[in-house]
């Protein structure tokens, strides 16, 4: 079969597992480790209700610690596999594999270069994570392709049918000397896409990814787009997010029809030691039979969960407390990477 039959599946397609890395004292979580572990435990407990979970740990001691915490919370340990590897941090949406599949069940792990979000942070171990997982036999005989071009999983959205959505602000930071046309070609080739849709507007204070699309707008089944709106005209985000909403309204499907838009409510500002944190409801995680939704202890948490559930019908909606995560500038989707059903991790 031609390599051109590969595609980047939508996240609502059937999955085999979710991949995470457990926080430890040598990651950026050290200062608030106990607090952030509450989110990881809640996440693991929720995921294992629906599918398998692969947990990367730095050493055996951390593995025992994580297992103890998850057992105490009622996670299904029969669905959890531990893998020991070194890592700089735990944002596996960006350092994990971007997996392509084809109709014959073949799988290819795209291993794009990870630069610590454009050189902001050290990332040597994270950049080697996919190769380490492959060498550990986690992915069986799946193909592995190293691509020497900076791209993070949080920077792209796929509808599973050849359309990729991304943001100019992010990719021009990673590749300042490349044109939009050149980057479009690289994305089309590397992801076997049919087209790339670009957003020029949209950002969140406290986000150091340079406007990853998964904090702003997400594809949903039936030509839907769920997006983070801002209904507070006095908020500094109002102009950018209103302009982004206009861009989304102007997008068209491959059939020339407008997308069905699902605007998400705006949480009240969350400030930590004078720093605004990026509390995006768009950063949710889809798993088999459910959608896991960030909760920030805000009055609109439930409304955000309701809207996301409407956009993903037939799935249970599970809220996961994510306020500890945004202290380090990301949320639920950012710390996870789903693996498609065709990729069956080995035991």
UniProtKB/TrEMBL annotation:
Gene3D superfamilies: L-arginine/glycine Amidinotransferase, Chain A. Keywords: Hydrolase. GO terms for molecular function: agmatine deiminase activity; protein-arginine deiminase activity. GO terms for biological process: putrescine biosynthetic process. SUPFAM superfamilies: Pentein. This is Agmatine/peptidylarginine deiminase. It holds the Pfam family PAD_porph.
């Amino acid at each position: 079969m031609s390599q051109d039959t590969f595609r980047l599946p939508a996240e609502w397609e059937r999955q085999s597992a979710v991949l995470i890395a457990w926080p430890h004292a040598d990651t950026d979580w050290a200062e608030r480790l106990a607090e952030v572990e509450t989110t990881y435990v809640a996440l693991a407990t929720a995921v294992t209700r629906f599918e398998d979970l692969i947990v990367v740990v730095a050493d055996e001691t951390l593995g025992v610690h994580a297992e103890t915490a998850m057992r105490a919370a009622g996670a299904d340990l029969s669905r959890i596999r531990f893998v020991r590897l070194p890592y700089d941090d735990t944002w596996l949406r960006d350092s994990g594999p971007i997996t392509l599949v084809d109709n014959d069940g073949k799988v290819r792990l795209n291993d794009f270069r990870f630069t610590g979000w454009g050189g902001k942070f050290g990332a040597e171990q994270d950049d080697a994570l996919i190769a380490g997982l492959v060498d550990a036999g986690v992915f069986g005989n799946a193909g592995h392709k190293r691509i020497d071009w900076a791209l993070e999983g949080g920077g792209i959205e796929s509808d599973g049918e050849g359309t990729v959505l991304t943001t100019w602000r992010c990719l021009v930071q990673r590749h300042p000397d490349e044109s939009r046309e050149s980057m479009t070609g690289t994305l089309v080739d590397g992801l076997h896409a049919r087209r790339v849709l670009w957003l020029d507007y949209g950002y969140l204070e406290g986000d150091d990814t340079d406007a990853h699309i998964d904090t702003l707008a997400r594809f949903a089944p039936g030509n839907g787009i769920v997006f983070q709106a801002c209904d507070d005209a006095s908020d500094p985000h109002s102009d950018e997010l209103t302009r982004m909403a206009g861009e989304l309204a102007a997008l068209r499907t491959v059939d020339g029809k407008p997308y069905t838009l699902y605007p998400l409510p705006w949480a009240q500002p969350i400030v930590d030691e004078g720093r605004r944190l990026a509390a995006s409801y768009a950063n949710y995680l889809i798993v088999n039979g459910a959608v896991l939704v960030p909760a920030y202890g805000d009055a609109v948490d439930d409304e955000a969960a309701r809207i996301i559930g409407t956009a993903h019908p037939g799935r249970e909606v599970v809220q996961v407390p994510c306020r500890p995560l945004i202290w380090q500038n990301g949320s639920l989707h950012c710390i996870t990477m789903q693996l498609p059903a065709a990729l069956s991790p080995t035991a």
